[in-house]
Design brief:
This protein has about 170 residues and is mainly alpha-helical. The chain has two domains: about 90 residues, no CATH class; about 50 residues, no CATH class. It is built from eight helices and no strands. Helix 3 packs across helix 4, helix 5 runs antiparallel to helix 6 and helix 7 packs antiparallel against helix 8. The N terminus is likely disordered.
Amino acid sequence: MENLPEKTVFDIEKSPIKEAYLLLGAKTPLELSQLYTVEDQKLMKSNEWDYANPDLITNKIKDILERIDTDTLSEQEREWRGEILWFWHHHAISCAIARYKDKTQAQIFAAKALEVQPEDHPNKITRLLYLLVNDKLEEAETWVSKIEDEHEKSTARDLVEGYKEKGFF
């Protein structure tokens, strides 16, 4: 019988973001992201997602991830940390627009979302929101014309039309 390589097991006990794993019951960086997304979507669907509520698990996770020195994380943890922080900021833009009508906060969240979003990320709505909250309608319309995914293009058109009809703030 040949010796098979041992399967590498991720040890959350040694992770600087152990607290985040424990909050969500995650055992790997990928699972952390997946379970974060589940919680995020529950809050979005119930219209309870709110960046100003420190009791929400999404905000607790975001706070843990933001205060960690990324140099102390594994490559996989850095990757999924970035995905979670992008997702949080992406939804924070919408919350600032819809719930608070807070243009300044929306602009801050949009800039941060773009900062943490990888260049090859498939989501094109974050950049569109950034352009619209910064009143760059012409650039936003050009951006929409470049979106290839039909679902995203439809969402993008709806956002631009809503912006043109009622504004965001």
